[in-house]
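Risk register update: the risk of archive-format incompatibility is retired. Evidence:
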Amino acid sequence: MKQKMSLQESLKYYFGFDTFKGDQEAIIKNLLDGNDTFVLMPTGGGKSLCYQLPALLMEGTAIVISPLIALMKNQVDAIKHYSEEDNLAHFLNSSLNKASIEQVKEDVKSGKTKLLYVAPESLTKEDNVEFLQSVKISFYAVDEAHCISEWGHDFRPEYRRIRPIIEKIGKSPIIALTATATDKVRTDIKKSLGIPDAKDFKSSFNRPNLYYEVRSKTKDIDKDIIRFIRQNEGKSGIIYCLSRKKVEELAEILQANKIRAAAYHAGLEQQVRSETQDKFVMEEIDVIVATIAFGMGIDKPDVRFVIHYDIPKSLEGYYQETGRAGRDGGEGKCIAFFTNKDLQKLEKFTEGKPVAEQEIGRQLLQETANYCESSVCRRKLLLHYFGEEYEQDNCGNCDNCLHPKKRTDAKDLLVLALKTILLAKENFKMDIIIDILRGNETEFGLSHKHDQLETFGEGADVEETMWKAVFNQAILSGYLNKEIENYGVLKVTKEGKKFLKKPTEFMVVENNDFDEDVEMVDLVHSGGADETLFSMLMDLRKSISKKLKIPAYVIFQENSIDAMCTLYPITLEEMQNIPGVGAGKAKRYGQEFCNVIKKYCEENEIERPTDMRVRTVANKSKRKVDIIQRIDRQVALDDIAESLGLDFGELLDEVEAIVYSGTKLNIDYFLEDVMDEDVVDEIYDYFKESETDDLEVALRALDDCSDDEIRLVRIKFISEMAN
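Archived output:
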């Protein structure tokens, strides 16, 4: 190792960089001097280097406490790229076998390993504590330190045990690092780690290259996302969902629409997660659909978009996740979908937790909702939340600034609001004050005699969205202070009291309203079926049925023809978007229909709704695959129904959907067991001659046969004749 190099030379020698970014050099010097250090640096600011370089320069091994196995692997791999020695960095966690753990310990003891990454759970294991007591430790680095705080967005109780374990192993300087922390979280972290006098290094939270937008979450959200990805083809992106189920469903839908996407969540096997992560970094996958478990420490600088399918639980979580976009300083689009229904759902999740925890959860959620609903510059709101003031009124890179709403003078409303807060003795949150202003007689309000306040109901004619805008703007303008640690209680500041005495102009933009179920106009169904084309396709169906000597409904059902007259499919691939048309049926009958539709569109200059043609994956697709596989293994249908928790009729619904969309199923083995051969033949012959497959009509014609018998033979008939 080179001796007596300057910090600048060391940076160049180990990492190949010519200059430090921001506070990196000052942070490293502080740590090299043996001081406790607190680093607040946004994602992409270069936090890792703040402990990696000093670890390489100092005597002993640095213990890096990190919350995720994926993050550790990523960091260790990155260090190995900077060095010829494979044992310079290691991790110690549950993914290693006994032999690997022994090898790691050997390398640490020999002094070859300068950085040892450990999960907080592994750090507390008795044998690891014993081993580390015998090692010279240069310092402890606590990465993703916000996990310590209940006010942070990824609270991990085991992080609270770090300080007692450090006491046990042996004291050394501590550096705590996080990408997101309010003043409350920062204080909490330092207190829990026992470093109240640590020197603070706080970088700006402003990421000018990131574009922020909030969209209304409608039933068409999947189409909206697919359209967005297609407009950004070939670019890397992350989509965050709150549930594992939604992650898998959405990844499946994207794959069906020929988007190179994969699912990532903590429920998948470690190997699958590692492979997915590697494929994303190596650009074999464009889009990752993930829970928040993905992205922490992922060193991919060119993520071009981050989409929030669900509202995040906190603004800190939102900021950190959006921070994974554009880390190279290039384009980064951050799109969040918001509906009040999601807010209510998340609030329900807090039920059953201790009261204090519920209040914290609700307050953090409310901050996120305020951000989503506000029409003010999103950058200004975000930076204010993290205690940083953004002086400009228009950042030019968020939806609210690019499409500003009309501002109105709300001087009188602010006077009324400030007056009400003071009358209520500055003891209540925004929603309670709005209830007073609007004259809402809630149980809580009546118990506190709010209906007796002189301003009760004086703002009844003002919409709730406008009141929220007034309060949020007043906070941004410094007239009000929201006590986060006191669950969002509003206090009037000195400036606010001055305003009350001498009111001046107070310009406000009304909040966006996400209460309504805004439905996107579905271009596919905007004008109903094309009657002329419908008649042409019905004629075509009739002529094919005559030629093949099979009933017309066997080819395509009427509702499928109807859908063709709104979607205008002109390729076999597009034909598979039609309800009731699977790959087999499209291949067998689809081409002639596509030819007629294509010619019709050209002759009539019809603009097809191309951007709305989205392949959907039924929520029950896994169940359907399961049913097909069991029928192939000749499992009795009643047994299949029972094992799937369905009644027999529901199972027949599923099987009918499978065969009507073009998949061939052989249920002869079951019919032979449960039905007389002559009855099967009689029903089969009926469907051969009938012009309709309607069950009611069949029941009248075959009055000796049961509903289930007719349905079973109809499945056999459609499967053999149509597929």
